Amino acid sequence: MELLNGKEISGQKREELFEEITRLKNNGITPGLAVILVGDHPASRSYVLSKQRTCKELGMHSVLTELPESTTEAELLARIGAFNQDPSVDGILVQLPLPPHISERKVIEAIIPEKDVDGFHPLNAGKLFTGDPAFVPCTPLGILEMLKYKNVDIKGKRVVVVGRSNIVGKPVGQLLLAEDATVSFCHSKTNNLAEHTIQADILIAAAGSAKLVTKDMVKQGAVVIDVGMNKVDGKLCGDVDFEKVKDVAGMITPVPGGVGPMTITMLMNNTVLSAKRRKAVKGAV
Ligand SMILES: Nc1nc(=O)c2c([nH]1)NC[C@@H]1CN(c3ccc(C(=O)N[C@@H](CCC(=O)O)C(=O)O)cc3)C=[N+]21
C-alpha cells in the first residue's frame, strides 16, 4: 500500500504556484481572493482561516469578510456585488453551508462566473459537463492532481464515486470521465453498494458517512480516495475505514492529510488562473 500524501503533493504544487505568483507580481499582478464567512460554524471558521493562511504564504492578496449569523440574504448579495466589481479580487468564495434563511443557489449565482473559483456557478458546472471547463471545483481538481502526480492510469479504468453532491461527487465523476475513465455514481439509495465498489479500480468515497467503505468493499490493489470529513468523538474521520482498507488498497488517502490540503491548494490554483485570465482580457499579460 502506498500512501497518497496530500500534504506532500500539495507542498509541491504550492511551490510551483509560489513561483508563478512571484512572476505575476513582478508584472504588477497580485492574485486576490475574497472569502466570505457567515455565522460562526466552528469547522467552517478553521477552514476559512486555513485558506487565508495559504493565501498569505503564497504572497497573494486576501480579504476575509466575517458576517454575523443574522446577516440577511440581501446584505450578503450586496457584499458579493461589491467584490464582483472590485478589480483587486480575482476569486470570490462564500463558505458553505449558509444559515437556513439564505438561499445557497441565489448566492452561488450572484458570483460572476469569471470570479467563481469554487466552480459552483451553474455556468461553470455546465461547462465541465460539456467539456469546456472554466473553473473546476477544487476538491475534484485536487483529486485529479493527486492521481496524476502518482501516475495513476485513469484511461479506460473503472471509477466508482460514492456520493452525488454538486461540490464533489458529480464534478469528480465528470472530470474523470473527461480523462476517459468508465464512471459509475453510487449514493445512499444504491442497492448492494458493495457490488459496485468492489469493481472499482479507483474508488472515490464522498458520501459524508463515517467509515462507510469497509475492507470487503474494496478490490485488491484499488486506488482509494477518501473525501469524508466526519467528526466522530471529536476526531476527524473519513468515509473509509482506513486502518483495515489500507491492507487491500494499492494507494489510499489518509484523513486528515489527504484530499483536504489538496482542496485548498487548488483554490489557490484557480485564483491564480483567474488573475491571469482577467488580466489577459484587459491586455496586461
Ligand atoms: N464555498 C466553499 N468552498 C469549499 O471548498 C468548502 C466550503 N465552501 N465549505 C466547506 C468545505 C470543506 N472544505 C475543506 C477544505 C480543506 C480541508 C482541509 O484542509 N482539511 C485538513 C485538516 C482538517 C482538520 O484537521 O480539521 C486535512 O484534511 O488534512 C477541509 C475541508 C472546503 N469546503
UniProtKB/TrEMBL annotation:
Residues holding NADP(+): 163-165
Residue ranges constituting the Tetrahydrofolate dehydrogenase/cyclohydrolase NAD(P)-binding domain according to the UniProt record: 137-278
Database matches in InterPro entries: Aminoacid_DH-like_N_sf, NAD(P)-bd_dom_sf, THF_DH/CycHdrlase, THF_DH/CycHdrlase_cat_dom, THF_DH/CycHdrlase_CS, THF_DH/CycHdrlase_NAD-bd_dom
Top-rank taxon: Bacteria
EC number(s) recorded for this UniProt protein: 1.5.1.5, 3.5.4.9
Keywords per UniProt: Amino-acid biosynthesis, Histidine biosynthesis, Hydrolase, Methionine biosynthesis, Multifunctional enzyme, NADP, One-carbon metabolism, Oxidoreductase, Purine biosynthesis
Record Pfam families: THF_DHG_CYH, THF_DHG_CYH_C
Tetrahydrofolate dehydrogenase/cyclohydrolase catalytic domain span: 4-118
Pathway(s) the chain acts in: One-carbon metabolism; tetrahydrofolate interconversion
Coiled coil, from the record: none
PROSITE patterns on file: THF_DHG_CYH_2
Reactions the enzyme catalyzes: (6R)-5,10-methylene-5,6,7,8-tetrahydrofolate + NADP(+) = (6R)-5,10-methenyltetrahydrofolate + NADPH; (6R)-5,10-methenyltetrahydrofolate + H2O = (6R)-10-formyltetrahydrofolate + H(+)
General function of this protein: Catalyzes the oxidation of 5,10-methylenetetrahydrofolate to 5,10-methenyltetrahydrofolate and then the hydrolysis of 5,10-methenyltetrahydrofolate to 10-formyltetrahydrofolate.
Similarity-based family: Belongs to the tetrahydrofolate dehydrogenase/cyclohydrolase family.
Subunit structure: Homodimer.
Protein name in the entry: Bifunctional protein FolD
Native source organism of the sequence: Fictibacillus iocasae
Lineage per the UniProt record: Bacteria, Bacillati, Bacillota, Bacilli, Bacillales
